[in-house]
Write a structure and sequence with these properties.
Number of helices: 5
Number of strands: 4
Helix content: 40-55%
Strand order of the largest sheet: 2-1-3-4
Structural class: alpha+beta
Largest sheet: 4 strands, mixed
Shape: globular
Order of helices and strands: HHEHHEEEH
Amino acid sequence: MGKIFLIVSILASCAFAELKWASSYDAALAQAQKEKKRVMVMLSKEDCPACEYMNDVVFEEKAVSNEVEKSFVPVHIDIHNDFIPEGLGYIGTPTFHFLDAKGKKIGRYDGQANIPSFLGILGKYKK
């Protein structure tokens, strides 16, 4: 019985992943310049069902987290508690801004997306 639990635990850890979010917007830009990546900014807020869906479903999918980690430095900004850099507006949450390593905006996506759709969005804005 213990071996079955161990196997299931290993398989579950392979299927789900956790993004490594930058600690701040400035840290994300610095890391992106160093690693020659783009920046993915997620603007969200507490008690946002669409934001929770992105965090709990989409970003937990290994294909999504691998693509983000490969091409982007992700940073999360809470619209009520964090500083929002100039030019990164929102109508609702979540809002995603895609930037080059110098902070120049290259794209925006408003709202939640399912896993295949978000993979397409990432593909559109990666290098």
